[in-house]
Amino acid sequence: MLGPWAKSFPPSSWGQSIRQFVQSQARLSHFATPLLTIDHSATRHNVGVMAAWLAERGLQIAPHGKTTMAPQLWQQLLDGGAWGITLATAWQVQLARSFGFSRIIMANQLIDPVGLAWLKAELVDPGFEFVCWVDSVDAVELMRRGLAGAARPVNVAIELGAAGGRTGARSTQEALAVAAAIEAAPELRLGGVAGYEGSYANDRSESSVAAVRRYLDELVSLHDAIRWEAKPIVTAGGSAFFDLVGDALAPLSDRATVILRSGAYQLQDEGFYGALTPLPQLRSAVHGWARVLSRPEPTLAILDGGKRDFPYDLGLPATSFGRVDRVNDQHAYLPVTGEGLSIGDVLKMRLSHPCTAFDKWRAIPVIDDSGVDDPTVVDIVTTYF
């Protein structure tokens, strides 16, 4: 049931179910500000664009669900042809299982005893397909301890890293030692190799692209150095460099299942990913809305949304009047020149980084983005952070 927990929803919605509220055909103007919205047709368009791009290259995708933590949006990805869903923590995997998702990549190490105990019990279900990362012999031993007596082995992928990066074995030699430990562990099954190229670049400069390509070549070399008993997975690919990942890994498609893990493309943005994306056909599907709260100076407007409402880690929100240059918890500072902006005006905000937009909202209206001035709410997405 909706209630005051649903930030910026009209009090008239309190006590209604989400279905009842959607059936009431509420409009954007019925909501308070600040507000976050999702554009209905834009998400469908983006899922279709990426599906076509992948099909042309013979690639699979398991989009990273931590971007939205919204099972409704995960299901849209699967309906659009996604191989599975990627998640980052044991708790996130548990949530996905509670919603019935059965094919999950955990793009992380799983050595926590509580998480391993849960996974051990879950392996009784033969329909549960799961793979997680491992990057050291010590991690293999901890997994063995936590999974002793499990109904079946857990698929693990060797994670390859690079100096200065995040997790991952730091060389092919180290990774092969991990592979040997996995092969000697009856609780585990060597299922593939994995990595994340986004740790090594954050722009499209020549040096950054070269660094990503070097890393991906090392990932391919690791795959080639292992004698596989069954067809493995090879997985990489965030939302910024998936074209480079496709170029490097697609030649393995006849010997491996190549899986990208991009998560932001479903929503896209008009900031960080909008500038880096290899697919300019993607459309931004998430926007903020904020009201001019004060004009305390001729060249300054204060808006009623801030850090608690909109992302600010990879770029500040922008409006048709310019870009916000500073945010507090509940306020944004918008430099302005001249007239044309009054106290009470509501501004549509272009955002950067969907991951840190969604974690601030428990219920997000999905609007009909057909260009009308006051769009209708066609759905509500609930998040689980």
Automatic annotation (TrEMBL):
This is D-serine deaminase, pyridoxal phosphate-dependent. GO terms for molecular function: lyase activity. The keyword Lyase applies. It comes from the Bacteria. Keywords: Lyase. Belongs to the DSD1 family. Residues 285-368 form the D-serine dehydratase-like domain.
